[in-house]
Structures are given as structure tokens and as C-alpha cells.
Request: fold
Amino acid sequence: MPVTNNTVTLPYEPYAYQYGKSFVPYSITLQEFKTGIKKLIRCFSIPTAPNPYAASPLTVVQVGGADEVNAFRSASKFTGWLYVRIKTRYKSARK
Reply:
């Protein structure tokens, strides 16, 4: 992912339209990105070996409790976006 001027651009996500400005790729500050990823790995695990919790290889294992996941989800716009992607693109399992 490109990082320019302390901004991370997510090139495969939809473009955001701002009235009177050209279309720009979805991007966030580098600090928000780093914080979001740190919070993500405290709440979820993506197995690299065959997943013992489900038959699907596209399963994310929730390792944090419900309160931790809710805090992750509401921490920022980016973590909310990550949570939606996890829930819509992967199956979930609990450890």
C-alpha cells in the first residue's frame, strides 16, 4: 500500500467523492492505520495453518471478548470499516 505524506492509500477500495473536488482514493492517516491494525490483531486472528475451528479457509478467529470487539469496532472510522469487511468477507469462529 502506498504511503505518502503520512497517509496510507487503500487502492482497491471505492473512491470517495467530495463535492467540487476530483475523485480521490480511500486513504487515512498513517497513525490511524497503525492503531487500527494493532487493535485488529488484539481482537482477531487469521490462521496461517489449516483452521481447526472451521472447514473454510476464509475464517477469522475472534480472540478478543465481546467488549474488546465492540471497542475495536467503535475506535475509529477505519476500525469500523475493518470490522464490516471482516464480517462480510470472512466466516467468524471463536477461540
